[in-house]
């Protein structure tokens, strides 16, 4: 008893995931009941359509017994004795008519070949089309028709109807070019049609003679088979009756095929009575033969009735064969849908009033024809009382509904396109209009889907199905309508909020860009993707939870699970969250931009990329630094408008300070007057004074206020000119190193002999200073002095 108690809490979340009276469960329950009812009805229909049990019983009970085997052997004997001489007679007759058949075809080709249809003679069709096109252009005003053209037209006019003259006389100045061209095209087609009619009449005798020859083998087959069947006795009467029905079916099929050959003449273009090309004639004759063969198989099933087949078994087999025939007819329709559609469009090209309707019907005719073919079989197979009249009635209304739906769709889509068309063809549209134009495909799709859903409901109503009425009357319909309305409202509000936020951001971005405030524009452009992502996620979550709640899904577990996941993610990724938060504030405060030279987290470089989490710096040596914002505590940015060129120079002790300062001011004035540097300098050289004095140097400092982009070029150029000018003026720069001369024993004697007294004193001082330095440094190295050191002052640094 403890196991179910422990299983209950585990299954509780699944039980509470969907509300018991929620829309999802009601739709699932309604769909299950509908599927069950539909399955029962389909089972009944299958039983009514294909009652194969009776056919199986007849085969097993009548033909599966020894008596049935004997009956089949007797039937085969009668069949062979009947068909063998009949087929021989047919073959002999066909051989006898081979030469007359060839003679008739050759005669027709020789005498009637010049009057072949234009569709079978490309050169004549090309000439005729060129003449008609020229006449149409002349009538439409595209070409000027001179007196010679008029006289030629009058000479070529039909003497009985005077077609061209009357047409020209009836053309008024106010008549448009298109109307004139259409009228002329329709009038010019009358003689062409009359030639076709006369040509077919000329072909008729030869075609009938050829068809008669084709029927002679069939007649010979039927007469021979009838004669043989009359010789059988009373014992073979049931079998003779069955074979006779097979013979009759064969003869009827051959006659139908011969009639098709009379009309289509796939092997003789000169004897063809139908206005078809050679390829179309072969296609028509091939499918005629296939369908006739399938029908012949169905007719041959009648031969099994005298052998004891029940009416139910016979009807079931005939339904199957008839279904195969209808499916073959549907396949034929699908194979020829494009040529027939093209022929429809060509036929309506000269009639502007019917062109649109014909174009529309050319697109749907194949589907309508296939539907009618299958529907006819269903009505016959289900033995629907008054089925054919109901089918014609519902089919006519359906065509009318489709036509009206097409017109309504054109009006609605045209109105939507008219509203959005000026927006797409203009360059000076506002941001709101440009963003609204993005929804044109979606609105067009919604309008099309709405029109065709309503059309589908009306068509189902015409055919006796009422899904819309069931949804409206049932409680589930009210729930579904309320849920869909709430979801649609939520989506519309979400779209409005999304577009308002994005439109405001883009308008602000455009305003700052037009005003030249590129700094703010760049900062907003950097933050905009993050703001869009955040807003989209928030809207998606709210709309998604609203939709799930309306569909009957319990959203409380989802919210609780998301909260737990968010808390766990926050604890596990504190550094990541800190990166995002710090990055948001740094980007918002415009601490750095792409292209700035900054120092962050102890590294310096040019900013190459800014994301919401990291900044990428390109160092001076080419190295790439990726610094997370959580490591950034201080940002040193040298690109913020001002970059002062600091000047600091140390001259030798005793040099002329005044002269050095005047030189520095002069160099600063020269740089500000230089065309290469004056745009980057904001003020003159500012001398700050003596910064440091020691026994070897005097340090002078100053500054030139520059733009951030000109700081380093100005500072480097100032230092270069300062070095050249001090060198030229003899102003010595301080040397940070000291020069010592180490004296040797007896050096003073040498110097006394070669130098003067002043040199002796200086050298003596230098030697004593060197010896003292050596004496003081020896103990630090762990060595004792050599006793040669002496005290004295050193030489000034050079």
TrEMBL record:
Domain annotation Mechanosensitive ion channel MscS: ranges: 576-639
GO cellular component: plasma membrane
Chain ranges of the Mechanosensitive ion channel transmembrane helices 2/3 domain: 535-574
Protein's name in the database: Mechanosensitive ion channel protein
Major localization listed first in the record, in broad terms: membrane
Topology versus the membrane: Multi-pass membrane protein
Subcellular location as annotated: Cell membrane
Segments passing through the bilayer: 70-92, 206-229, 249-266, 287-307, 313-334, 354-380, 392-420, 441-464, 476-498, 530-549, 555-572
Keyword Ion transport: no
Organism: Paraburkholderia dinghuensis
Entry keyword Cell membrane: yes
Family in the record: Belongs to the MscS (TC 1.A.23) family.
MF term (GO), any: mechanosensitive monoatomic ion channel activity
Region of interest (Disordered), ranges: 138-161, 751-798
Gene3D superfamilies: 1.10.287.1260, 2.30.30.60, 3.30.70.100
Keywords: Cell membrane, Membrane, Transmembrane, Transmembrane helix
Bias (Polar residues) ranges: 149-161
InterPro entries found in the cross-reference section: LSM_dom_sf (IPR010920), MS_channel_1st (IPR049142), MscS_beta-dom_sf (IPR023408), MscS_channel_2nd (IPR006685), MscS_channel_C_sf (IPR011066), MscS_channel_TM-2 (IPR011014), YbiO_bact (IPR045276)
